[in-house]
Amino acid sequence: MISPRLTAVLVSRTGLRESGPVLENLLGQTLARDLEVILVAPRGIVSVGDLAGFGGFESIRLLELERVVNRGEAAAHGLLLARAPFASPRENHSFPSPDALERVIQDWHPDDAAVAPTVRSANPETRRSLAMYLAAYGPAAAPADPAPRDTLPHHNAIFRSDLLREIGDRLPELMSDENRLHAELQRRGFRLRLRPDAVIWHVNEARWSRAVTDPFMLGLAFGASRGVQWPLAKRLLGALGAPIIAVLRLKGLVQLGRRAEDTRHRIWWLAPMLGLTALMAALGEAWGYLRPGTPIPDHVEAHEFHLRGRLAGVLPASPWLRDIVARLPADLE
User: Fold this and answer.
1) 317: left (phi over 0), alpha (psi -120 to 50) or beta
2) N or C, fewer C-beta in 10 Å, the chain?
3) Smallest Cα–Cα separation from 253: which of 122, 119, 141?
4) In sequence order, what are the beta bridge partners of 95?
C-alpha cells in the first residue's frame, strides 16, 4: 500500500463553507495525489459524504471534536493521527503556491524538525495589512534566509510526524503557542529553517480593530510567556521599560520592512502604521510581564477562521483572491 508523503490538517468551525477554498488550493498542489488531508471540525458540522467531492487526494478524512476553540489545540489532534512522515497544519486564509508544499519536504535533512515556506502578503493594499504582515511574518518574509532559526511562521510550517508523536498528549498545549513547540523541538537537538524557494500567500488582517488589538495580543503572549521565567523585580523593570520596548520594536519592524520584498519600496508610507503597531505590541508585552502566564482569551482566536473580514472591505488586487472571496457564502467573515 502506498503511503502519503504529507499530511495536511485543516481546522474548521463551519465546515466546508469556510474550508472549501483551502481544499481547492490543496488539490492544486503538485503532490495532491500524495497528500493525506484531515479536516478537524465540531461534531455534526461535516459529514463523510460532504468530502466525496474532494477525491483528488491520497485520502481525506474527518476528525470530529466536541468543540473547536483554539485552532492550534484542535490541529494537534489531527497531527497526531498523521500517516505521512511529514505533517502540517493549514489555515483557511493561507494559500501555498502550487509547488510550495512539495518543495518544503524535498531535501529534508535529518536534523530538521520543521521547515516552512517563505511568506508573502496576499493583500498588500493597505498600511494596516502590511503592518500586520511584518509584525507576524516579517522574519519569514521574502527574501528568506535558509539558516537555522528560533521560530517559524505559526500554523504554516511542516513538521516531522514522528517528533510530534513523541511529544504526544502535550502537543495540544504546545500547539496553542507554537513558540513553545519550536523551543521544545530545539531542546531535543533539532533545527528549524525556511525554504526560500517555496512561497505561501497569507491574507493579513486589515480591520482597524484587529490592527490595534492583534499587536497588543502578540506582545502580551510574548511578555506573559517570558515573565513566567523571571523574578518579580525583573518583570517590573520590563514593564517600566515599555517606551524603550516600543522604540526597539519599531526599529525591528523598519528593518524587516526594508528587507521584505512586499514592503521595501514603501517603507516610509508604511512608517506611521508601524509606529502604532510597535506601541501596541510594547504595551501588550509590558502587561504580560505584570501578568505572567496570562492566556490569550478564546474570543481572540475567532478571527483566525475569517477570510473575507480580513480584507476590511478593500478589494484585493490579486485576481485569484478576488475569485475566492466572491465565491464565499455571503454570511461568512
Assistant:
1) alpha
2) N
3) 141
4) 201
Residue 317: how many other CB atoms lie within 10 Å: 11
Surface-to-core class of residue 149, CB atoms within 10 Å of its CB (0-12 exposed, 13-18 middle, 19+ buried): middle
Please give the grid coordinates belonging to residue 95.
Answer: 494559500
pLDDT in tens, 89-144: 999 999 999 999 999 999 899 999 999 999 999 999 999 999 999 999 999 999 99
Length of the chain in residues, anyone? 333
Alpha carbon dihedral 176, 182, 183, 189, in 10-degree steps, equals 140
**Cα pseudo-dihedral 158, 159, 164, 167, rounded to 10:** -110
DSSP string, 312-328: TTPPPS-HHHHHHHHTS
Do both 129 and 274 map to the same domain?
A: no
Residues 139/162, Cβ–Cβ less than 8 Å: no
Residues 77 and 217 in one domain: no
**Closest among 75, 4, 7, 16 to 49, alpha carbons compared:** 16
**Total tally of structural domains belonging to the chain:** 2
Please check whether residue 330 lies inside any domain of the structure: no
Q: What is the pTM of this model?
A: 0.93
